[in-house]
Amino acid sequence: MGNTAIILVARLDPRLHTPMYFFLCHLSFIDAALSTSIIPQLLWNLGGPEKTISYRGCVIQLYVALMLCSTECILLAAMAYDRYAAVCHPLHYTALMHPGLCWWLVGLAWLCGLTNSLVLSTIALVLPRCGHQRVDHFICEVPALIKLACVDTRRSEATVFAFGVLILVMPASLILASYYAITRAVLKIKSGTGRRKAFGTCGSHLTVASLFFETIIYMYMLPHTSSSQEQGKFLTLLYTTVTPVLNPRSTH
After folding, report:
1. 55: closest CA among 119, 124, 120, 113?
2. 104 Cβ contact list (under 8 Å, min separation 6)
3. What is the value of pTM for the model shown?
4. Total Cβ atoms within 10 A of residue 90
5. In what helix (H) or strand (E) does residue 240 lie, and over which residues does it extend?
6. pLDDT at 192
7. 163 Cβ partners below 8 Å, 6+ apart?
């Protein structure tokens, strides 16, 4: 409801027809869709006697959730660049963030998300499981499905790692570089009010991005041991359920 309200208000108020709210609308749509694709089935599983999901439901959830998460990674990087342009180049902001570039960045985000989902989900689903059907996880996720395989999965894990560098590490690095430049520019502002306004505008986005990337990088790129598996399951809930809730609050 919170993310839907953001979309409606941003569309109805002409004053909010800016690049920042354009990206925010897409982020709100992704977060609302991600929650819808995961939380209802999760609650049903936790309350049901068998706590299982059908194979078809698992496949649909895997493709949809992974596409949305991957798209959000690229979109958060685009939003960081938008904040960089607004703070560091305010006089050229309109020329830099023109509508054509905004649509191109959003299209790139969705294309990367779709490609990443098709490749990684297919890799996880075609691996032979030799009768192992129960996933020790809250949701259907690529690392959890790869663990069920009864063959050598080093090539599959290497592919997941390579896509993780492209979809996770590179956008996270761009976000850090953008906010490093923003911090340097803000510190040069002599007005205390101007500093608070700049940090207030960027701080909420940085908080959401940090929580999202830290948890998802832990899940997809760091080696997992048996002792970290239980922790990983709960960390999954952070970027699939907590982050979508924080997005409406961050707009305040």
Report:
1. 124
2. none
3. 0.86
4. 10
5. none
6. 66
7. 116, 119, 120
